[in-house]
Amino acid sequence: MLRQAGEPLGIAVYPVGLDAEPEAVPYQNSVITAEIERWPETALTRELATHNSFVNRDIFPRLADRLTQKQLLDQLNLATAPWQLLASQDQWPQVFANLGELAIVKRRVGGYDGRGQWRLRPGQESQLPADAYGECIVEQGINFSGEVSLVGARGHDGRSVFYPLTHNLHEDGILRTSVVLPQPNPALQQQAEQMLSAILNELNYVGVMAMECFIVGDRLLINELAPRVHNSGHWTQNGASISQFELHLRAILGLPLPTPVVNTPSVMVNLIGTSVN
């Protein structure tokens, strides 16, 4: 989708697989971006790891690990669910004493769409694989009234623009539907923009980032950050004056960042494929 967004602007986008041979990829004089924040080590990724024009190259590992991501939020005093590193089985009494009777365990790296995550109560600790200890964080289960995400973009000059808050419905940990209104709750919108701005500026991040939040009363708790174009922002292709994909390209290439305009409600339905018999 980045490729299609670049065509009207005269920007050539070359999608490449991580297992491509480096000599087959014209990366030497290119600006490098990514649509995923973690990748295996291959001949190509070893070359890109030292590329001076790989935008956000050193930020991806920090946000791909939930431990260092949570540490960043704490450093900035941004609200998130109470959490801790889960290092051993011996911690469970202290975990439930500190975090409550519902513990959400997440693998530090990987784990999405319901995979690599567990909802555990006292007596269910044995459901967690032995190899999870030391490789997971554990969070307090939050009683929230809704889930929203804020998609924004920051340019090389430090200016940021944002879309309206998107309301998300998940089923079994997988995003099913996103709904956006042209006039979001102003207090929550302002709160979300302040939070995401603090993160973007602290990291000196350039490009599109999504911030997923829980609504708890009249405040937001940050759930996770995605340093890339995001599935909860796909509605922007048809529902906004500029898509998240064009906005990302403009940001990383130093082009002007127009403020997105949204005039009508939009709904995105996430179509999930199933195995064929």
UniProtKB/TrEMBL annotation:
Q: Which domain of life is it from?
A: Eukaryota
The entry's keywords: ATP-binding, Nucleotide-binding, Purine biosynthesis
Q: Which ranges carry the ATP-grasp domain?
A: 70-253
Q: Name one GO biological process term.
A: purine nucleotide biosynthetic process
The record, for InterPro entries, names: ATP-grasp (IPR011761), ATP-grasp_carboxylate-amine (IPR003135), ATP_grasp_subdomain_1 (IPR013815), PreATP-grasp_dom_sf (IPR016185)
What are the record's GO terms for cellular component? cytosol
Q: Name one GO molecular function term.
A: ATP binding
Protein name listed in UniProt: ATP-grasp domain-containing protein
